[in-house]
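Problem statement: downstream parser choked on a complex file, so we are re-checking the raw output for the alpha-D-ribofuranose run. The parser issue turned out to be on our end (a line-ending mismatch), but while we're here, posting the original submission so the record is complete.
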Amino acid sequence: MSGTIVILGIFVADTSYRAERQPRMGETILGKSFALGPGGKGSNQSVAAAMAGGKVHFITRLGCDPFADMARAIWEPAGVVPEVTEDPDSYTGAAYIFIEDGTGNNAIIVSPGAAANISVADVERHAGLIGGAVVFVTQLEQPLPAAHRGLEIARAGGAVTILNPAPAAAIPAEMVALCDYVTPNESEAEGITGLPVTSVEDAVNAAKALRAMGAGAAILTLGENGALYHDAERTVHVPPFSAGPVVETTGAGDAFNGAFAAALSRGVDPVEAVRFGCAGAGISVTRPGTAASMPKLAEIEALLARG
Ligand code: RIB
């Protein structure tokens, strides 16, 4: 039996440019391809969690425009229940995504648009939903006070709380202390702790620092090196899953967080849930796009069964 997952975050339209390299200031270069698709970390995580079998409600703000229509068109078939405040005075945001042709790696500028106005009051309007959740997830693309309030309400209601601290920001220790799980990647962990993360050993040190800030457990996503789980009793390096050639790594962290939340909502042991998340991420990187690359539950289960 799975309980409700509530995710707070942003939707934006991803505009992705594949090129050999990024232009220098003042320079124009030719790209190899362009794609427009649904993105935003909170929305991507919602789609990932729903496709991985979770019952997901997504709290956000949208404009009243074609990009908002794009959001609804990805949520509906995935089974995400939208909890949207419409803002006719703003616009649905967008992200510039540079994809390095040789590696599939990315660099991103995200402009949240209407979602930059997600407020504490917006979150408090959904207090009943958040307080009744089994798992609550948020990130840092919307204003930090809204994320903080969401974590407070979720913790008070007894939900399992997950903070994906992306993009990296200075987070108050009292906010970290509200989190059962904090899930940065290497650079985000470095941004928060000040400790460089270039190896699994470094990841253990950064995870210990996050626990010292008050997190129940720290999970560092390590790209091609899988993930590192660290709580009061266990430190486990979970290796990556290969599901085929890597096409694009954008959204891999969201695939991980969404699948991880879905597994936790079914009562799965956290280290097993990390394996489930790594399998989801391993499939997502074999496909282009972010929300559009999220795997179905059966695909993740098949990859886990193959080992
Ligand atoms: O994590 C990937 C996401 O980050 C992209 O979809 C982009 O919109 C940015 O928010």
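For whoever reads this later: The domain at 4-306 is CATH 3.40.1190.20 (UDP-N-acetylmuramoyl-L-alanine:D-glutamate ligase).
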